[in-house]
Design a protein that fits this description.
Blueprint: H1 24-35, H2 40-47, H3 51-60, H4 64-67, H5 75-85, H6 91-100, H7 105-116, H8 121-128, H9 132-141, H10 148-155, H11 162-175, E1 177-184, E2 191-195, H12 198-210, E3 219-226, E4 234-238
Antiparallel strand pairs: 1-2, 1-3, 3-4
Helix pairs in contact: 2-3
Length: 239
């Protein structure tokens, strides 16, 4: 569930409990309502949350093996059916399992400390209960690493695993790439050149600008381009 789910509705301001932590009583009220056929909009009004937030909570109470395959808008329907047909169904246990998979302060701290200590990836996978790809993505979002290659080099990864395969693809892309340098603001006009690496492009920029005396600021862009793909990382700066 995104923050936007609980911040506003299509018809007016958000309910006054939008974004608040769910209490055990809130969850019990929701489950009782689902068992008794209460419409999801009425449950949202009772709990003072958005309909989207109610549906997200329902989705988190589904078994982990099907939770990722169910649309949030349909989660309450699937959950009602499981509650009505399966006496062994345990939504609270599913909720705990699904929420443990989400990143929180405690798991982030384990990751940050592990990064600082170069803790082996296999240990981090067990410590935070996440896949190698999830850990790599979280390291990038936390600002610990610029990309998955750096994560794998520092923490390691399982050979032929998901992260290893991603890194191979990244290396293949880099090997097949060129870096396009565009310099705007030179006395002689626009400069465009191709380079094998970003370092080569930066060195060429330094050489070109050192030999000129522009009147205005110079804007430079280095863009990675691969055959068949018009998109790639772009770096722009002004000198």
């Amino acid at each position: 569930m995104s923050a936007a789910d609980d911040h506003e509705t299509a018809t007016g301001p958000a309910p006054h409990r939008a974004g608040a932590a769910w209490s055990p009583q809130d969850t019990a009220t929701l489950l009782d309502g689902l068992r008794n056929g209460v419409p999801v909009d009425d449950l949202a009004e009772t709990l003072q949350r958005t309909t989207s937030a109610i549906q997200a909570r329902c989705k988190n109470m589904l078994p982990p093996d099907i939770q990722t395959t169910v649309l949030r808008a349909e989660a309450d329907l699937v959950l009602r059916d499981r509650l009505a047909t399966d006496p062994e169904f345990d939504p609270a246990a599913n909720l705990d399992a699904n929420l443990r998979r989400k990143w929180n302060t405690e798991r982030d701290e384990i990751l940050i400390q592990g990064w600082g200590n170069s803790r082996p990836m296999a240990e981090l996978v067990a410590a935070v209960d996440a896949t190698e790809i999830d850990i790599a993505g979280r390291c990038i979002r936390l600002g610990l690493a610029p990309d998955s290659l750096v994560v794998a080099e520092r923490l390691g990864c399982v050979p032929d695993g998901g992260l290893d395969l991603r890194c191979r693809m990244m290396r293949d892309r880099t090997a097949a790439s060129v870096w396009v340098l565009v310099i705007d603001g030179l006395p002689d006009g626009l400069h465009i050149s191709l380079h094998a690496t970003p370092d080569d492009a930066h060195a060429h920029f330094a050489a070109v600008t050192a030999a000129s005396a522009p009147d205005d600021a110079i804007t430079a862009t280095v863009a990675q381009r691969t055959l068949g793909s018009p998109h790639g990382p772009v770096e722009t700066w002004t000198a």
